[in-house]
Amino acid sequence: MSSTSKQNRGDGCKRAKRSRSLLPEEEADQRGNTGGGEDTLKKDSEADQRVNVDGGEVTLKKGPWTKKEDEILVDHIKKHGEGNWNAVQKESGLARCGKSCRLRWFNHLRPGLKKGSFTAEEERLIFEYHFLKGSKWAHMAALLPGRTDNEIKNFWYTRSKKRQRAGLPIYPNEITSKYSFNGSQESADILANESSQSDETENFNMDITDLDLKDYKFCPDMLPPFFDSQDAWIRHRYLISSSSASVPEVFDQYGQYPMLSTPFDPILDTNLLHGYDNPIPGFHAASNISSSEPIYGSMSFELPSFQSSPTQQCTWSGMYVSPLPSFESVDTPVQAPPIESCLSVPVPVPDSPDWSHLIDPIVYYNSDQNLEGTSIDSLQANTESMAPNEADISTQWNGLDYDQCPALSTRQINISRWFHSEIETSLDDIYGDAFNDQLPADSSFDKEDNLNQKGLALPNAVLDSG
DNA sequence: AATTTAACCAACCGCCAGAGA
DNA sequence: ATCTCTGGCGGTTGGTTAAAT
Length: 466
Hints:
Layout: H1 24-32, H2 43-49, E1 50-53, E2 56-59, H3 67-80, H4 85-92, H5 98-109, H6 120-133, H7 137-143, H8 149-165, H9 173-178, H10 185-191, H11 232-237, H12 266-273, E3 305-307, H13 313-317, E4 343-344, E5 359-363, H14 374-384, H15 390-396, H16 406-409, H17 427-431, H18 433-436, H19 447-453
Antiparallel strand pairs: 1-2, 3-5, 4-5
Helix pairs in contact: 4-5, 7-8
The protein binds a DNA duplex through residues 1, 3, 5-13, 20, 41-42, 44-45, 47-48, 62-65, 83-86, 98-100, 102-104, 106-108, 135-138, 149-151, 153-155, 157-158, 161-162, 165, 257-258, 260.
């Protein structure tokens, strides 16, 4: 739906209602002639809505953007980069406040935005994250590349209302039961107030992956700054090697998300640090649990699946061609994690081609292991030229040597709890024969043993923040 | 065919935090 | 320490479209 088809809402700006048959240009004209002194906008907004031009006060436009306005905004950002949004109006002549320009850019104009319906995986993540963390739309957007917080928010409200109307609990049973206390049947009963098991949520039930994670540690410095390094949910998703000493520049000028320092969340962290399966939403408790405390027990692990935003793809995976245009002001390459400590493995998802370039499990290895040198370099060489295209990736992985990426040899790696409809999908399945061809023909070949022989034994305790 | 309802979506608002003067 | 500016976030509104009646 184009923005120009929208009418402005009656938010205090007294403007004549338009008929829906107006052309965009007509809409723009009409909008431009409205507003003014009759505004009931409060103080904070008034400053946004009026600017001084040639000594006089000009009322800024509101409402849907026209194509021409979009072009002006895009052109300005191409020339000057993002930021300083209030200057956009002054320099470009756009009769839009800085906030409006920023919103328009981030939600509609910036490169890499993913349009279209939400996938089941996206929906799962949204519901799960909301269950755990509440209305952190921007955080969710960070986990759903190409999606905007606004889009996610709209989706959430629509879906949650729909479920409520249908007499269903807001959260699917699979989520509530998953995060209920172990052994707490009461809690489970309360939460599991859902009448039916539907296909749409059946994949919430996860199992522990077989991935050997002894050498994969959690390194808070490598987290997107958006996330709380104390957050076990996040820690669970972003296992990285403690050998990573440097802190990469995560977000470039296109980064949607600020360098937030999310405060410690006693609700989630207390629960999660005691075991991934055990949090109870709304359970507030002071926690003195050390962030370095390993998580054992029922916690399930998966390959760290960094759901980078489009702007972060090249940052974290270090291999994709950025979809962004080469604006002069944003040409400065972002720093990727050192290859010595990190490998980024693109994982195409056969049933969800759109996700193929989004799911970037980052496989970090311990440099103490026998994985240094040419094998890593060659893997990097292999991956650097990869395009975020499923077919391309599948093809190019054909040349991957088993020895070069031990993590890939582990079956039933849970690539992404939320982003893959096939929970038990192994990389073998993903890469098919091209991958299996790398393995010994002996049917009794034990990959785990093989890993052990390579000094990559499979541990249980994983999170060691060192 | 007309009307009503639901779903989707863009855009706005207030609030707030951080940076800088 | 205080104020102002800027920009980010979450909540909300209401227009448009699709589906249902």
